[in-house]
Amino acid sequence: MSNLGLHLSADSSIERPSTRSVRVAVVLILPFTENDYPKMDILELLAGGAIIDVIDLSAYLYPGNDFKTHRGPMPEGIDYHLISTAEELQGVSNILALADFILCGATSGHLNQKNLDIMRLVSQAPAPYMIIYRNAIPVIDRAHFRASFNQRLKLFNLRNSIMNRAPLALLGVKPADYVVYGGDASRISMRLISDKTTDIWSYAESYEHYKSERAANPCLPTNQTAVFLDQNIGYHPDNSEHGLANSVDPEMVYPNLRRWFDLVEAKTGLRIIVAAHPRANYDAHPGIFGDREIRYGEAAKLVHASSLVMTFYSTAVNLGVLFGKPISVLYVPELMNMGMGDASDALAETIGTSAIDISQLDGLVWPDIMRFDSNAYRRFIERYIRSEKSTGENIAEIVFELHHMQSAAQPAMPNHAGEHAQ
What's the fold here for domain 2-204+386-409? Predict the structure, then answer.
């Protein structure tokens, strides 16, 4: 892989194309919601003059699922394409043919039978495509992080097994042209990354939320709240994508959470607020967290103002580290059914604490949950949030700069197949 250093002009946060607007195709396998705006820097792309085609494959790949969808009108500049049938899927090639750049959210760097067809279409498109893999969690560093034999047997899929061994060219798929990383730990071996792929170092998505919140509320006082960073465990649509549907029994998770919340409130006097996962729909599960406030899209502000942060292993825990908040890492044995039994312990170890098994609260020796290790937090930031190699640019800035470079190199061509920046 080659490494690409991007440098924007000092007088502008975005380097805009010098000739015409860039057309960006955003390919998604889960429903397009407001949650995807910061993931892909969509609002900043629009502000820089980009035209965006959102290709939403959720209805085709997961028919009948009750996914949370986009709540309001979409901004001008977005052409939204909901794909529901095989015929409509084939029409995606016509949309991709118009693109100057493809942000591929159909894969985290690997192939499976869900994303193979769309990855073939992405590979056939003349525009280069980018994978964004910048939100690594500490369990990725565990050498023995792998599913048990029984879990692997349960999840075994012959077609996926063949895809993970066959040459990409035989499958009609090409490696990514670019991959965007966050902290050092995000650079791992991936099926769709090769020596033809250009590395670009940015930062974890949460770092952007952190910067925006600090700018908006530089003097926000700490209040008497504890924030639980929800992961929608037991209901998350990613479970279907990875073959883990119904693998987690919510009754083994949420009653334990409610007991823990009761205990924390009694011991500390703090009021617990739930920062809901963006794809969660808790209207369908009233009382799941007890009589506690549930808020969407406010994790950064809630963490900034809080006295304590709690989570299982959410990537949003980065906000707690960046804001310097005490973090309680929680565990329930049910996480083993997701193949994530080590995730809580790995997170806790990395930030200098121990995970709390909330399924075993009887006789618990109360831990000092209001302290944290600042040195461990500093190491965590470089490993999982922002590498020293980071260019400091976000996704929008990277896309505009790459398009500018491509336009300067071949101004007469609207699309550039297989071109790699050196």
Answer: Rossmann fold (3.40.50)
